[in-house]
Amino acid sequence: MKSFTIYLFRHGLTKGNLNAQYIGHTDLPITTDSISALKNIKARHHYPEVDAVFVSPLRRCAESAAIMFPKNKPLVINELIEYDFGEFEGLTAKELSGVEEFTNWLRGDMYARPPGGESNAEFFSRVCGAFEKIVEGMIKSSTQTAAIVGHAGVLMAILACYGLPEAPMAHWQMEAGYGFKLRITPSLWMRANKLEVADTAPISAHA
Q1: CA contacts within 13 A on the Cβ side of 206
Q2: How far apart are CA 84 and CA 194, in angstroms?
């Protein structure tokens, strides 16, 4: 049976990433150093040829996609935006140390939320709903290959929800410019809403 391939790649780094801040909806660009780093990754490895590229509405994803996939016009999926950190936005874990709402949120309860932000349950529901629409659209249109250039938290949530082997979010951490290759078999997807995490990506140009 025909299978479909989706690549997940983390966007380049912003100043907020480098400062260890919680940066969700703040629309920061990637740094000049990160632009150079992505270009270096591209020179040493193969970013795959794909039929479609999906990004969040934030510029750090669009800027990264333009380097990784210059031949593709990215399709913006608003629901792939990073976590809404509410009042935690722009702050670091050190700055939030001792804040009761932060401590409760860090425990990972699905219904905990930063003040003014979204709960973990709302985040997972939003991201997973968007991903399922992408997969179902690919199957219906026979789009064989696609890439999502997204936020680490968003991509890790997708992998935790659907990936085989099954593993918690923390297992799926990835560096900027890198990610995973997913293989979707329609029968497995329709039966269990699961997919195979086939490899890391991009693949070495010398492999």
Answers
A1: 3
A2: 26
**Residues with Cβ < 8 Å from 116, sequence gap 6 or more?**
86, 87
Q: Using an 8 Å Cβ cutoff, are 15 and 155 in contact?
A: no
The answer to whether the beta carbons of residues 123 and 90 sit under 8 Å apart is no
Segment-wise mean pLDDT, segments of 10 residues, the chain, 207 residues: 93 98 98 98 94 98 98 98 98 96 91 95 98 97 97 98 96 97 97 97 70
If you search the block for the tokens 């709903």, which residue do you land on? 129
What is the rounded distance in angstroms from the CA atom of residue 94 to the CA atom of residue 85?
Answer: 15
pTM for this one?
Answer: 0.96
Cα–Cα distance between 3 and 204 in angstroms, integer? 23
User: Strands 145-150 and 52-55, how do they pair?
Assistant: parallel
Which residue in 77, 81, 86 sits closest to 22, CA to CA? 86
| Cβ neighbours, 10 Å, residue 41 | 19
**Whole-angstrom Cα distance, residue 130 to residue 134?**
6
Strand partners, 133: none
Contact call for residues 85 and 114 (beta carbons, < 8 A): yes
14 in helix, strand or coil?
coil
